[in-house]
Amino acid sequence: MKTGFLKTIFTLTIVSGLLFSGFYIIRHRQIYQEHCRGSTRFDIGLFSQIHSGLITESSGLLRHSDSLFYTHNDDTDSCLYLISAAGNLKGRVCIPFHNRDWEDISSDGRGRLFIGDIGNNFYRQDTLKVLIFNEKEKNSEGIIRMSFLDEKGENSAFDFEAMVWQADSLYLFSKDKRERNSLVFAVPDRPGDYTLSPKQKIPVAGMVTSAALRPDGKEFALLTYGKIYFYSLSYGLSQIPAPDFCLAYWPMRQSESLCYLGRDSLLLGNEQGNLYLLKRK
User: Fold this and answer.
1) Which parts of the chain fold into alpha helices (H)?
2) Which of 65, 95, 100, 64 is closest to 80 using CA atoms?
3) Which residues of 160-199 are buried (b: 16+ CB within 10 A; e: fewer)?
4) Please, are residues 236 and 222 in contact by the beta-carbon 8 Å criterion?
5) Assigned domain for 268 exists
6) Counting CB atoms within 10 angstroms of each CB, which of 15, 93, 230, 276 has the fewest?
7) For residues 110 and 132, is the Cβ–Cβ distance under 8 A?
8) pTM, whole model, 2 decimals?
9) What is the domain extent for residue 259?
10) What integer pLDDT is reported at residue 30 of this predicted model?
11) Distances (CA, A) of 267 to 28, 54, 150, 257
12) Can you name the residues that pair with 115 across neighbouring β-strands?
């Protein structure tokens, strides 16, 4: 009797999971395909696969050189992993900074790395952090601590998976569970305690999971579940216009990392370790 009961519970669990997955796919496929007209602008293909068992849930991606990239796990350890374009592990730097929920990594191009412990899925955190790590000296330069003044009861805005550096600031983009917009926040790239307030609202159809700035600073890409939005920038990230177009990428599972390789190409990564090359036609 006990075996039969367990089989019933197992069957109900599987059926419930399938029903939920079906509902999720049907609901989100409409969001993914909504107003996207950029599919003819890029060639997309599987580029490589991360081959290290140490990287179990790749969450961020940062170009280090022409053929090397930094990535990190979501919440399992406090290491930065240096991988080749072919997905092979080339190095590892473990740092004394707790990985509660590392979501993205950025750089100022002069040796400072910004590691964003900025996830807040259930809105239980009152303070989120960004570690400033000196890549050359291999030491910490301090911590940026951020709190959120929730005057309108919009605590869903205090959850991030996307962060990018420009000029003297870090820009963070909220992961809105309602999937219809993202609030943009800016914080100085110096250690300290800061209270965040939104600078801008960007309409997007999907939860934002990563952001990337083209090396020349003239184009910005925002990654969501199912889409990448592209923006031409005239005044930097302090004034983001309407997107030029968006690109749907339905088959690529839970993608949470994005970086530019150059003017006309990007690398897209998912938590399963697949790396995709997006090449402008």
Assistant:
1) 2-33
2) 95
3) bbbbbbbeebbbbbbbbeebeebbbbbbebeeeebebebb
4) no
5) yes
6) 15
7) no
8) 0.85
9) 34-280
10) 41
11) 23, 21, 35, 8
12) 105, 131
Give tens-digit pLDDT for 63-115.
999 889 999 999 999 999 999 999 999 999 999 899 999 999 999 999 999 99
Number of domains in the chain: 1
Strand-pairing partners, residue 196, are: 148
- Give residue for tokens 């003017």: 263
- We report the CATH number of the domain holding residue 246 as 2.120.10.30
d(CA 280, CA 264): 5
Radius of gyration from C-alpha coordinates of the chain: 19
Give me the residue label for tokens 């890549």: 135
Residue 22 is assigned to a structural domain of this protein? no
Residue 252: helix, strand or coil by DSSP? helix
Can you tell me whether residue 208 is helix, strand or coil?
Answer: strand
Question: Does any domain span residue 93?
Answer: yes
Q: Are 269 and 255 in contact (CB under 8 A)?
A: yes
Report the chain's mean pLDDT, rounded to a whole number. Answer: 87
Q: Which residues of 103-112 are buried (b: 16+ CB within 10 A; e: fewer)?
A: bbbbbeeeeb
Q: Give yes or no for residue 172 having a pLDDT over 50.
A: yes
User: What residues form DSSP beta bridges with 169?
Assistant: 166, 188
Q: Which residues, other chains included, contact 206 with Cβ-Cβ below 8 Å and sequence gap of 6+?
A: 28, 31, 32, 179, 224, 225, 226, 227
* Residues 238-255: b if buried by 16+ CB within 10 A, e if exposed: eebeebeebbbbeebeeb
Pairing of strands 139-148, 192-196: parallel
